[in-house]
Amino acid sequence: xxxxxxxxxxxxxxxxxxxxxxxxxxxxxxxxxxxxxxxxxxxxxxxxxxxxxxxxxxxxxxxxxxxxxxxxxxxxxxxxxxxxxxxxxxxxxxxxxxxxxxxxxxxxxxxxxxxxxxxxxxxxxxxxxxxxxxxxxxxxxxxxxxxxxxxxxxxxxxxxxxxxxxxxxxxxxxx
Length: 175
What we know:
Blueprint: H1 3-27, H2 31-37, E1 38-45, E2 53-56, H3 58-65, E3 73-86, E4 89-104, E5 107-124, E6 127-140, H4 144-157
Parallel strand pairs: 1-6
Antiparallel strand pairs: 1-2, 3-4, 4-5, 5-6
């Protein structure tokens, strides 16, 4: 294997790791980890899901993510990575399934969205930073109304919740 091929494989593995870490930081409510993964400012485009589109400070993105504290748990799963390398820049396209769970007043609210992530990355020394993230909505498993109801309630609950522990979905059971 030529050294260029080896470097390409190493870069692709590091990029996949960065995208998986993005998802884990969201689901683990690990805001420091998210800050370490993204450029400042960072381009965010969630307009296909009715949210923002633009270049924003990294801290503004982290603050927006804190609405997810209103959910009991979230799971962002990515697959089908397609990576295009261009020197110290890369684009990673992947499928994403995003599940948001909330038990509230005797009912279960769920916001389930699936689509495509397009992450723009820049080499930062030995790792890759996410300079941009676009979510292209394909659909919502539970429908738009259920999705909006779940997020509306999560917005109400988020200010009273903290990220002091792992969400229920990633809690390790004790023997």
